[in-house]
């Protein structure tokens, strides 16, 4: 399309140069006619030169107008700009809210994307801090769990000799009752002491069982808390991964937009440079044409003055010749 505009401009200048050559040729032809036919057609020649000058002035006025290619380049630059806005709007649109292909809408969408990116960054930082806190809590739970497992092992070790002791006590009680049926009164005090010892031992065992039950409940609560914290950490890590992926996609999209913007701006600059160059050429050609037109106008004015002088010089001779003819024919003489 640029080549076509340049050819049209060159063609217009060729036509104008041809018009100038025709004007010069007509003036030369009229000058030859003037010399060949004499002063009778002097006024006709002058009128013809005047019409040629008017036509030349019209062509000069047309030359002063901006070339067609300049307006075409401006339309092309505007078309590139609108196409760039359309591509930006397509990149920034989503399925929920499409972006119109206008400069204001594209600017608002880019500002919105920047604000969302800042919000995602702050949210990502908050999630990272929360993950660090939960990780510390989980480490503390594991440490407490390791510490609580040690008393459980000790309690199990203590429980085994107590069971053996309980069995021995039951056996001793059984044999003691069988052997000392007749000596109940005499052996009442030692038996009572054994019973007291056994009751203390059973109380201690009951106390140990309660402690073991409480320890098991505590461990179960710690396991449930650990599982809950692990689930929350996995959910937060998943959200963080989604945010990182979304942030990466937004950065890629912004990079594509910037590349497209740079390419379009470069094309617009090149188009403007071409328009300025063609406009300069048109101005130079117009200036070059003005000088021949002025000289042709001046030559035509000189020819007009020359024709008038010749007409004025020939007029008295014509009047004298006419008077002589009338005297010879015997007609009354008319004033010239």
Automatic annotation (TrEMBL):
Keywords: Coiled coil. Residues 68-79 have a biased composition (Polar residues). Residues 57-79, 138-161 are annotated as: Disordered. InterPro entries: CCDC170-like (IPR039139). Residues 226-253 form a coiled coil. Residues 139-161 have a biased composition (Basic and acidic residues). This is Uncharacterized protein.
